[in-house]
Design goal:
The complex is a heterodimer. By secondary structure, chain A is α/β, with parallel strands linked by helices. In chain A, about 40% of the residues lie in helices and about 25% in strands. Chain A contains 10 helices and 10 strands. The longest helix of chain A is centred in the middle third of the chain and has 15 residues. Chain A is globular and about 60 Å long. The N and C termini of chain B lie far apart (about 55 Å). The chains are: A alpha/beta, B alpha/beta. At the A-B interface, α2 and α3 of A face α8 and α9 of B. Bound molecules: adenosine-5'-triphosphate and magnesium ion (MG). Chain A: It holds the Pfam family ABC_tran.
Chain lengths: ~260, ~425
């Protein structure tokens, strides 16, 4: 069995009537790791949010399909059960709900009624992943993300990724705010997921994450579009030279200048 | 001048009722005086809730012996849920309507002088002790018309007495089961913890009268003497037909502690007052309460801690979930009296609205008559956060399940505080039932 295919075509997304994404095309297949880079505010999180179904983002044009199924027709929870996962840039805090209770509910949500994960099995697998990610056991009994440090939240997102085993995951700045050790641990977790049945879209600003997780493809997003794609060497060049050369190469003007010229 | 008598009970009735119960003279006198006062006293005035057309005064008041309960198997399923599966039936009191239907206290605690018995037996066997505390320093007979009515017509309850330096490890549990509505319940719970003692007491009020109307007029008085600790848990679960007035008060002396965890799950209209007096220096109290409002019910909860002693510490926590067309007001009143130096008063009240038609309000009030103190309050009324829902649903949880988690999480700080695991589970189930 080979992996799933997430296909994004000509995606236009608006937030509060302002168009942010202006025609994104991207395909992520099981077995592939894609990195998306790009300057601040160019729409990377918007793309992630639109794929997952964030209530504030409105898709005005284009399609998103997962193995041919129309993702845009699905509710947020249906998208998750269909195999999508988004590690969020800013995960919510859920007071009063322990990380382990939440995880068990989430795992069971994907399973049939009557086929819930046995408690002992759940605990065993949770302990294993906590261990693998160097997370203190007591995080499982703490309330989900409440009072977690920035780094702890990111680790917790990867814990959820490992527990829920989606087909396609989008990781939005999973490396931001991580110290070197945490970066290694988080990368280790993500690399462990690598298989023909797992595809991943990694949004990042920094090459350093890609030192640990080698992407198969690197895409550059600017002004709401994927403007350039390449292999790992593209990320290295961006790290060294920034984005100016792409703008020059493609004749992209800054939006303000473009408006003035119009 | 004669005042028109609006109450359906007269002095002869009260006298006869008291005599039938073999009550000591002081009690008969107290009842009789209370009835005299009732007519002229005002109804309680809960802040921001109009109760003038609620029926608190027109009810039946018969006394019919109910059958004793020999084993847990005789209880209906809904009641059994309040016990752990391996419940020993020890340190347990079950009141069926107004009858003490089951009562047990371990030999060990009996030997230590602990008293855990129904209020009528207590009045006969420990008359002086009950008289000393009954409606004197905590709830006054003349506080309002309903407390007077309670004093006049009290028809059930329990007396808990913990002698000096006795520490009770296992919780004492009382179940007040209002099986039928032949009589209103005017229940009185009296808890006295002598110097250096400690006790955990948990009570459950249960009825099933969804349509038949009746009244519950409940008074609790808790006394924690120097260095005593009382943990008081409750799940109130009267059905929609019962209109409830519940007045729970505590008095804490030096170094004493009174902690409340109240699950206020009635389905009928309810006025609840929970007031603690921190009289002694270095005394402290936590008053935690949760409620779920549904249907058309209106509820008003006041939690108040008044701090007289120095270096006292008070924390009020209220959480409410509103659905349907329910209306609920939460009043949190922290008061530091003049002389209560170095005291701290904190409070937090939060209401979560699940429907358009529900109404909720949280009123934080801090009254401070002393300079050298610390205090803080937080209050909010809001809806379920759509970003929280998005986050949970993005992990595959259906909307309803995600909402369920958020609600349980919201109520958890109080629910987790209930001292008996089976009661905590039961409260969780009641919440579940009321929310969906
Ligand atoms: N509620 C909103 N109203 C108006 N504009 C918004 C709103 N939310 C986001 N935007 C705009 O959408 C644009 C894209 O934002 P997005 O978060 O997708 O950027 P990003 O590429 O993820 O940036 P970063 O690298 O800083 O995370 C930004 O210009 C942002 O200001
Ligand atoms: Mg972003």
């Amino acid at each position: 069995m080979s992996g799933s295919v997430l296909e994004i075509k000509n995606l236009h997304v608006s937030i509060e009537d302002k168009e942010i994404l202006k025609g994104v095309d991207l395909t992520v297949k099981g077995g592939e790791f894609h990195a998306i880079m790009g300057p601040n505010g160019t729409g990377k999180s918007t793309l992630a949010s639109a794929i997952m179904g964030h209530p504030k983002y409105e898709v005005t044009e284009g399609t998103i399909t997962l193995d041919g199924e129309d993702v845009l027709e699905m509710e947020v929870d249906e998208r998750a059960r269909a195999g999508l996962f988004l590690a969020m840039q800013y995960p919510s805090e859920i007071s009063g709900v322990t990380t382990s209770d939440f995880l068990r509910s989430a795992i069971n949500a994907k399973r049939e009624e009557g086929d819930e994960i046995p408690l002992m099995k759940f605990i065993k697998e949770l302990d294993k992943d906590l261990d693998y990610l160097d997370i203190d056991q007591n995080m499982a009994t703490r309330y989900l993300n409440e009072g977690f440090s920035g780094g702890e939240k990111k680790r917790n997102e990867i814990l959820q990724l490992m527990q829920l085993k989606p087909d396609i995951a989008i990781l939005d700045e999973i490396d931001s705010g991580l110290d070197i050790d945490a970066l290694k641990v988080v990368s280790k977790g993500i690399n462990k997921m690598r298989s023909d049945n797992f595809g991943c879209l990694i949004i990042t600003h920094y090459q350093r994450l890609l030192n640990y997780i080698t992407p198969d493809f690197v895409h550059v997003m600017m002004q709401g579009r994927v403007v350039k794609s390449g292999g790992p060497e593209l990320a290295k060049r961006l790290e060294a030279e920034g984005y100016e050369w792409i703008k020059e190469e493609l004749g992209i003007e800054d939006e303000e200048t473009a408006e003035q010229n119009a | 001048m004669t005042v028109e008598t609006k109450l359906p009970f007269n002095q002869e009735y009260i006298q006869a009722f008291s005599k039938d119960r073999n009550e000591p003279g002081w009690m008969t006198t107290l009842r009789s005086k209370a009835l005299e006062m009732a007519d002229s006293l005002d109804m309680p005035k809960p802040d921001k809730t109009k109760i003038s057309n609620w029926n608190f005064t027109d009810f039946q008041h018969s006394y019919k012996e109910a059958a004793a309960i020999a084993s847990l198997n005789e209880l209906p399923e809904e009641l059994k849920a309040y016990f752990a599966e391996d419940a020993s039936m020890e340190n347990l009191y079950i009141q069926r309507n107004q009858t003490a239907a089951y009562n047990s206290l371990s030999q060990e605690l009996q030997d230590k002088g602990v008293i855990f018995t129904d209020i009528f037996t207590a009045m006969n066997e420990h008359s002086d002790l009950v008289e000393k505390y009954y409606m004197n320093d905590a709830v006054a007979v003349d506080q309002n018309r309903l407390t007077a009515l309670h004093a006049a017509l009290m028809n059930g309850g329990i007396f808990v007495y913990v002698p000096k330096n006795v520490q009770i490890e296992d919780p004492l549990q009382a179940i007040f089961w209002q099986e039928d509505t032949d009589s209103a319940l005017l229940n009185h719970v009296l808890v006295v913890a002598e110097e250096g003692s400690s006790v955990t007491y948990v009570e459950n009020y249960i009825s099933h009268n969804d349509t038949e109307e009746t009244v519950a007029n409940l008074v609790t008085e808790v006394f924690a003497h120097d260095n005593a600790q009382v943990a008081y848990g409750a799940v109130d679960n009267f059905a929609a037909g019962t209109t409830t007035y519940v007045n729970r008060r505590g008095v804490a002396q030096r170094d004493a502690q009174i902690n409340w965890a109240l699950g206020q799950m009635n389905d009928g209209n309810t006025v609840s007052e929970n007031i603690t007096y921190l009289l002694g220096d270095n005394s402290n109290s936590e008053a935690k309460a949760v409620s779920v409002g549904r249907g058309k019910q209106t509820q008003n909860f006041t939690s108040s801690i008044r701090q007289f002693g120095k270096q006292t510490d008070a924390y009020i926590l209220q959480r409410g979930v509103m659905k349907g067309a329910a209306t609920t007001i939460f009043n949190a009143i922290g008061k530091i009296e003049h002389g209560g130096t170095k005291s701290n008063s904190e409070q937090e009240s939060r209401v979560l609205m699940l429907s358009e038609k529900s109404r909720g309000d949280a009123n934080p009030i801090l009254l401070i008559d002393e300079d050298d103190v610390t205090a803080g309050h937080a209050a909010s009324v809001g809806r379920v956060d759509p970003l929280q829902m998005y986050y949970l649903m993005s992990r595959g949880l259906e909307q309803e399940e995600a909402e369920r988690l958020v609600i349980h999480g919201f109520l958890a700080p109080v629910v987790a505080q209930l001292p008996i695991e089976s009661v905590r589970k039961q409260l969780t189930q009641v919440i579940e039932r009321k929310v969906y």
